[in-house]
Amino acid sequence: MTLTAPPSPADARRDLLAAWLTGHAEKYALDLATLAPASADASFRRYFRLASAGAHGATLIAVDAPPPEKCREFVQVAQLLETAGVHVPRVLEVDLDAGLMLVTDLGTAPYLKALTDAGPGPQARALMRDAIDALIRFQLASREDVLPAFDEAFLRREMELMPEWYLERHLGRKVDEATRGTLDRTFALLIASARAQPQVFMLRDFMPRNLMIATPNPGVLDFQDAVYGPITYDIASLLRDAFLSWDEEFELDCFAYYWERAKKAGLPVDADFGEFYRQLEWMGLQRHIKVLGLFCRINYRDAKPHYMADLPRFLDYAGKVARRYRPLAPFARLIDELQGSSAEVGYTF
């Protein structure tokens, strides 16, 4: 007897998506034969592009967001962003229970490639200022009790990824009492700083990888994890990115542009740029701590190793910030130790 292997879950999901699109093919003049992968990300969402002769563009994007991926949240936040005047994909059709969407296509010109190719110059400055202006528009639309709170428990849960997945799983380093004490004191400082800031709509993944060069510019992607949190978070994630690093002069120019424009727009950024910058750096450090653990979890749990090459960038970010502030000196010493340990472990996967 010949046994036939069952189809993989990924194939089954694609078949489900294709069958669902068939029901919308006539309305949007879809050419189902052109359905092809457009991109994937660190989650289990997948994106497919297909041709359309309809009124919404020559191509559309079909989204496979298998539950419990945040399909409902995508629709909600897309509406918030669009209302705020931010360019995002328009949701044309959605099946919330199945986790399927058909949305407009923001094109194939990612910020990340343009910025990488251009380097810190006039083109990069113009692109980043467009992104900052879009961020300010979204923050100006902020209201309480609309998005989940980025509260103390949330902040702490994110940072705990570092000891669990980076220290213990990746480096094989036991979190002893001294290390735990350093982490606890550092986490407490960062949480207090974040919670003391004005709270606004916060995208969490506002970075060049999730921005597209579009008209109007930019097009914003990957926003379903938006929350209500510290005002400096998104500007920190935009400039202290997982996939791109800037020199300090360019960073400061962008941070100053955001601070001046935000103040002029009436956003409650700190009136003192020095204190604003400290808040921003400490907020960025919270994110970097999280990412060190998150990228390791994605590698070891989800078998997606391609993010691991960026771990040294985040160790470098964390070390530079920690060394600048006396209260963070114990954490700076820990980072120095970890950079030595990481060099020994290496990043070949």
Textual characterization of the structure:
By secondary structure, the chain is α+β, with helices and mostly antiparallel strands. The chain folds into two domains: 12-104, Phosphorylase Kinase, domain 1; 111-345, Aminoglycoside phosphotransferase (APH), C-terminal lobe (Aminoglycoside 3'-phosphotransferase, Chain: A, domain 2). The protein is built from 13 helices and nine strands. It has helices at residues 9-22, 25-28, 71-83, 111-118, 122-140, 152-159, 161-170, 177-196, 233-239, 248-265, 273-300, 311-324, 329-345, and strands spanning 30-40, 46-52, 59-64, 91-95, 100-104, 199-202, 211-212, 219-220, 227-230. β2 (46-52) and β3 (59-64) form a beta hairpin. α12 (311-324) packs antiparallel against α13 (329-345). Residues 1-7 and 343-349 have low confidence and may be disordered.
List the helices and strands and how they pair.
Elements: H1 9-22, H2 25-28, E1 30-40, E2 46-52, E3 59-64, H3 71-83, E4 91-95, E5 100-104, H4 111-118, H5 122-140, H6 152-159, H7 161-170, H8 177-196, E6 199-202, E7 211-212, E8 219-220, E9 227-230, H9 233-239, H10 248-265, H11 273-300, H12 311-324, H13 329-345
Antiparallel strand pairs: 1-2, 2-3, 3-5, 4-5, 6-9, 7-8
Helix pairs in contact: 5-10, 6-8, 7-11, 8-11, 9-11, 11-12, 12-13
The total of helices stands at: 13
| Spatial order of the strands forming the largest sheet | 1-2-3-5-4
* Run of helices and strands: HHEEEHEEHHHHHEEEEHHHHH
Q: What structural category do the secondary elements indicate?
A: alpha+beta
Largest sheet: 5 strands, antiparallel
Span between N and C termini? 39 Å
Mean pLDDT: 92
Strand tally is 9
* CATH class bucket of the largest domain: Alpha Beta
- What gross morphology would you assign? globular
Give the CATH architecture of the largest domain: Alpha-Beta Complex
Uncertain segments are 1-7, 343-349
Specify the helix fraction band.
40-55%
Radius of gyration: 21 Å
Indicate how many domains the architecture comprises.
2
Q: What name does the CATH topology of the largest domain carry?
A: Aminoglycoside 3'-phosphotransferase, Chain: A, domain 2
Strand residue content: 5-15%
CATH superfamily of the largest domain: Aminoglycoside phosphotransferase (APH), C-terminal lobe
